[in-house]
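Internal ticket #5521
Category: modeling
Description: The requester needs a full-assembly model to guide mutagenesis choices. All entity lines are attached below as received. Residue total reported by intake: 386.
Assigned to: D.W.
Attached entities:
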Amino acid sequence: MNNNLLTGELVHLTAENPEVMAECFSRWYQDTEWLRLLDTDAPRLLSVKKWKEWLEKDLEKDLTDGVFFAIRALEGDILIGFIGLFDLYHQHGDTLVAIALGERKYLGNGYGTDAMRVMLCYAFNELNLRRVGLIVFEYNPRAIRSYEKAGFIPEGRIRGAILREGKRWDWLYMGILRDEWLAKRIMIS
Amino acid sequence: MSIDTQLFEGKLIRLAPIDHEKDPEVESRWTHDLSLLRALWRKPAMPLSVAQMKKKYEAIEKEVDESKRLFHFTIRGKEDGRLLGFVRIEGVEWTHGIASLKLAIGDPVEREKGYGREALQLILRFAFSELNLYRLSAVVGEDNPAALNFFKRFGFVEEVRRRKALLRDGQTWDSIHLGLLKDEWLAINLKEEDHHE
């Protein structure tokens, strides 16, 4: 039994109060390079107050519709990003995962990959899902590499779904099945 | 087509608004065919009463009005106006010119009569030459080969296979994402026009 389901080697996943997350979101969303890697929406620059209201409203939602965790670096317990499950269908055992590190200096050092490993363990061992999928943009090779490292396999591309800087880019779908995840874990250990 | 083309008029059918008086009873009956719901949505299939259907129509019109990301049309017989189905463009992302599509002919006896085909032709023209979208997606389960062939016949190509994303009747199926680009739609239409000449 793993009694430390939410802790990895570099990070742990936590639940945060709206005021903590609101401060981070308001700051991170001003970083347009970050946002363009994360989302197709145009930035709106919401205030801390507005983010807090939005997150408080989120508290009323049914927790089984999705999962949201903050990512904290174990060293210094610093909040560096978030990871969540959405489009979660329990009856099909399927979900999508989204991850973002807002604190830039933690990028490219294995923190994201570690958080993803922890989240996959939660999805497969606690929620008992059968598969986890994700969407990543063609112009984000660093994320694609990280997802491959975590065991995700390409499942196709939505052609030209994003228009940025006058150029069309694909949305890539990737996915990992429970059996693939188990096989990878056995190989590592 | 030209500026005075009637976008919602076909030969057999037309696209029209919801009729809050008459439609709830008809569509409530359709929802008792769970295979239809399974083909359209991933959430657990559940029949809706007439009262629940009325509320759903109100929610749909509210979303159309407020979100600006949804277009929902009923498909009706051209002559008698009877409800045959619905077609919707969902999740429009205006900055990128993308959206996805759902289409249903409710009553099984009304299928294979060309109504769906005409509705799709109308909605594609609406999506590409009225909304000026760049592309349209349709998501179809591997357990629904009829829909898969239907969209492919109109030029949609398979783009994504989310492996085993559906679990139904103890069996897993891929969730298949199809896509059609405006340029592809234009090329197909030009070829058909040549054909008619």
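Resolution: model delivered.
Comment from assignee: Chain A has a mean pLDDT of 93.
Ticket closed.
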